[in-house]
Amino acid sequence: FKFVEQEDGTYAIGAKYNKDDPLPANVVLPKRYNGEKITAILEEGFSNCKNLRSIVIQEGVKEIRYHAFWFCPLLRSITLPKKLEKINEIAFSGCYSLLEIVNKSPAFNFSKEGNEYLSFTNSALVIFNRGDRYENRFSTDEKGLVTYRDGKDVILVGYDGEDADVIIPSNVTSINGSAFLLNNVLKNIKF
Length: 191
What we know:
By secondary structure, the protein is mainly beta. 2% of the residues lie in helices and 32% in strands. Strands 1, 2, 4, 5, 7 and 9 form a 6-stranded mixed sheet that branches. Strands 3-6-8-10-11 form a 5-stranded parallel sheet, with no helix packed on it. Strands 12-13-14-16 form a 4-stranded mixed sheet, with no helix packed on it. The chain is globular, with a radius of gyration of 17 Å.
């Protein structure tokens, strides 16, 4: 990670790009750096992290800045902390695979019907606002097919495998438009 000290002595966090050591697919951000709280996500802090699938933003973060997660095309799930006070309206633009928002902050009440954060909430299938009971709906099979269960529907949302040929299971009811985004391995899909 990259940490930048703020005027108040706390830190803002972002990804430190290294093509030889990319960010893991599933990230839980730390709460502290050098003993001080992390209170912000840097401007463009995690932008263009093409491997990022899920991120949990820990308690203490109060602000998500401009383009913080811009063009993270495989980001499927985000968890927002209780003390979050500000999200730049285009912080999540280009997150085409975003399916799930777990919101713990009373400052926001996200909906798919519309608000100033529609640029990233309109693609989400499920939004858990504070007080909602959260349940993990993602699963990955032994071949790397990632599905998301929404009631009776089983949606194919991604392929994290390495085989060139894939057979879609019969229980899959639909395929998300970005399920195979940025996949350079897959050659054949069979139903």
